[in-house]
Amino acid sequence: MGVPARASGQSVEQGVSHKAWGGREVMLSHSRPAPRRSRLNRRVLVPALFIAPSVVYALVFFAYPLAYGVIMSFERFGFAAVVHGSGPFVGLANYRAAIADPVTLTAFLNTVIFTVVSVASQVAIGLGIAVLLNRPFLLSSLLRRLVLVPWLIPLVASGTVFSLLFGSTNGFMNNLLLRLHLISSPVQWLLSPGPALTAIILVNIWAGIPFNALVLYSGLQDIDPVLSEAARVDGTNAFQRLRYVTLPLLRPVLLIVVMLGIIATVKTFDIVWVMTAGGPDNATQLMSTWAYTQAFANFNFGEGAAISNLLLVASFLMALVYLRSLRTRPGV
Predict the structure, then answer these.
(1) What is the CA radius of gyration of the chain?
(2) Could you tell me if 190 and 173 are in contact, meaning their C-beta atoms sit under 8 angstroms apart?
(3) In a domain, 278, yes or no
(4) Residue-by-residue pLDDT tens, the chain, 332 positions
(5) pTM metric for this prediction
(6) How many domains is the chain partitioned into structurally?
(7) Does residue 287 lie within any of the structural domains?
(8) CATH of residue 160
(9) Which residues constitute the domain of residue 199?
């Protein structure tokens, strides 16, 4: 019954195989499989090493400042507290003071007006440019590149240039509007409350149009032109095809553009600070510039942090609305 291993022409001793081949015995070494634990460690360790720099960056430059800002908003953190690194705990006093301040209400209303008018205009103009670029015509490729120019210019540089255009009664903007007979006398654009808010809104619209046009143009490229052609054959005009064919299919992209535009516009700072610094008499003060003014001009870091956190909560709620709208959208 028991046949010796030698008689079968093969034997295994301590991981070494003896096999007869052509009358000679050849020793074959069988490699042992790697331990399961080491393979598991390798599969976990290698991805962790790639992710670690991003995690460290997020913790140092995002999580830590956010947590420190939240802590600061609950402290009486004035100029003296900067030396010690912390101030006495005051609970919700900074939030109550910020909400009770009439400038905060002005900044909130200005932020709402600034955001609604800017985003609505950017999306409408960007959609018009995207529809135009989606049609083949002479120099269309060159125009697509030129549309991106305002987006490539830093906002600080844009604000500085437009400050020169709006800043004088003999400036370019006043001369242009006078020659077009749109105004009867020069306007103090940056020194009057109403015109100053209008000026920063116009500059912000100009700066945001390229992003909207680019994203909406990409969305139009994904729409099958056969659908518009079929609607045209059915007798619809261009406006009807835009309303009943293009816009419904472009709705997911429009939703993304609107929500990203709102989140970006709510925290706008560069253009406003360069052009008006929140003036005149807080007429162009936004929540972002008011938080900066409280912290770095009035040295009331605790209340400035509280205003920043209120702005953060507003942006977070907008992001939640965006995510919820994606879930309730048909087909998602």
Answers:
(1) 32
(2) no
(3) yes
(4) 444 444 444 444 444 444 444 545 544 445 555 556 666 577 778 888 889 899 999 999 989 988 988 998 898 887 777 777 778 888 899 999 999 999 999 999 999 999 999 999 999 999 999 988 888 777 777 887 888 888 888 889 988 999 989 887 788 888 888 999 888 888 889 988 889 999 999 999 999 999 999 999 989 888 888 888 888 888 888 888 888 888 888 888 888 898 889 888 998 999 999 999 988 889 999 999 999 999 888 888 889 999 999 988 888 887 787 777 766 555 44
(5) 0.79
(6) 1
(7) yes
(8) 1.10.3720.10
(9) 93-328
